[in-house]
Amino acid sequence: MTKHTHSFQAEVAQLLHLVTHSLYSNKDIFLRELISNASDACDKLRFEALANPALYEDQPQLEIRISYDRDARTLTITDNGIGMSEQEAIEHLGTIAKSGTREFFSRLTGDQKQDAQLIGQFGVGFYSGFIVADRITVESRRAGLSSDAGVRWSSEGTGAFEVEPITREARGTSVILHLREDALEYASAWKIKEIVRKYADHISLPILLEKETWQEGKDGEPGRMVKTGEWETINQATALWTRPKKDITDEQYIAFYQQITHDFEPPLAWTHNRVEGSTEYIQLLYIPKHAPHDLWLRERKSGLKLYVKRVFIMDDAEALLPAYLRFIKGVVDSNDLPLNVSRELLQESRDVKAIREGNTRRVLALLEDLAAHDRLPEGEAAAALSDEDKAKAGKYTTFWSEFGAVLKEGLGEDLANRDRIAKLLRFASTQSDTPSVSLADYKARMKEGQEAIYYLTAESLAAAKNSPQLELFRKKGIEVLLMTDRVDEWAMNFLTEFEGTPLQSVARGEADLAKLQDEAEKKAVEEASTAFKPVLERLKTALGERVEDVRVSARLVDSPACLVVPEGGMSPQLARMLKAAGQ
Ligand code: ADP
Ligand code: MG
Predict the structure, then answer these.
(1) Global ipTM
(2) Which of 191, 219, 437, 567 could link 509 by a cystine bridge, Cβ 3.0 to 4.6 Å?
(3) Is residue 553 over pLDDT 80?
(4) 538-to-234, 292, 534, 549, 550 alpha-carbon distances in Å
(5) 82 lines ligand 1 (CB under 6 A)
(6) Reported pTM
(7) Residue among 29, 126, 137, 312 to mutate when testing ligand 1 (max atoms within 8 A of CB)
(8) Rounded to whole angstroms, what are the CA distances from 10 to 13, 95, 113, 144?
(9) Whose CA is nearest to atom 19 of ligand 1?
């Protein structure tokens, strides 16, 4: 039998150095990570077995077993999931592939204390085992391979690892941790149960722990705990989302979110429902606190996991949500879809369409609820508020600053919900530097005789505020919404009115400005137009093709001239965007 030594990928070596040298604060996370890997491995087996049931061999009951040996100072986590071939062990345990860990790397500061805290929050997968172990041995056999195709992987968590073939009857993987001197506390049923309850209760597989019993010492020897060979289940072993809401604590919802997203922050809010009727499914949808770095990438992954009757089917089930809600994370568990459903089938399924619409409605309802409680009322109304509602204060503001620009895409994408989305919009305006003005707020402040909601799109708030287009509106005390997201120009094409009031760009046409003028102003413009006719003609000749018309206008107060777009023409902001895009 040959034993081969391999070096870790450079990033792994770097990560291991960090894990072993600066992590003392939150040791417990190693068990969460290893249990989560065992659970993933069982999910993978279940999924592959849909097409090839023989993979179950004679062990269809998937489970995770934890045992320890105080004398040998080992803690072992065993699963009967998919397992690894020799090649897979080399690749998966010697390199870093997952994006969560890469993101972790991008956040490293070089400051040991800060970085250690970061690991505690993030978890770094398999390698976190080295927080408590000075050697890790992994023994595995991949489902479907024969017992002599087992592999033993072993490392001290420094630069290298060893791999050798072994014979292993049991399908799946055992991770054997050789505990460090200062981590012997983990060889204890009490400690293991505590961590499982905290981090892994929602795992849908049974997690079993070998039972111990007290044995009196014989012939004057001291008594000791001995293993009984019996196993007890130490978690609830039902998928979190299948449990009734009232039986799930906030801590459990948060732990589940963090497990499926690798987010180190708790979510902003969530909604959990069992939908009954012609399409039956469970939805557990979370809004994160922060936008991911790839929110604007076309190829980014969606955040929903699809299960069918508790069986994991796929990550990134993008068909379950419209693109403008791509920031949502969570789980959908359908009772109706076939187990062998593919991505292509998902696109066409009527059940999926019903689920997507149901998810959309729930997310919008959740946002409406947050928006309604964003500002704490004063006096008695505040006292009457439940603690739960009080805790919602400020959340919509956070949501909007992280995801508002994405939600705006919905104006163009989701006709059926356009009105609901319009109510969720928030803007800066000539009366508010922060994007906190809703269209309803604006309407409530409209002046006598004002017939439109006015807005201005610009590249920045500063540019918007300095625009000469605003002069007349300022003079008249009329509020103008200031829009500075790249998506605004496009999105506003789809929002021509709000509850019966038209939306009007201040950079367009002259027509309805007349309505804001009194008789004297109109007369002044007419007189000036006649008086300045020769000047206007000369300007028109000089500018030639570049302009359609040169006019005297009441639009300006301080500036001598400005550009406007003819009714139905392209706005300067949109023209700039198209130019930047090479059109
Ligand atoms: P992640 O779980 O996010 O992919 P990890 O560092 O936790 O990252 O694990 C790395 C990889 O090692 C996994 O993606 C998987 O391929 C493999 N692996 C780890 N533990 C197991 C296990 N118990 N059974 C099978 N494969 C495993
Ligand atoms: Mg993992």
Answers:
(1) 0.99
(2) 567
(3) no
(4) 88, 54, 6, 12, 10
(5) yes
(6) 0.73
(7) 126
(8) 5, 8, 22, 32
(9) 37
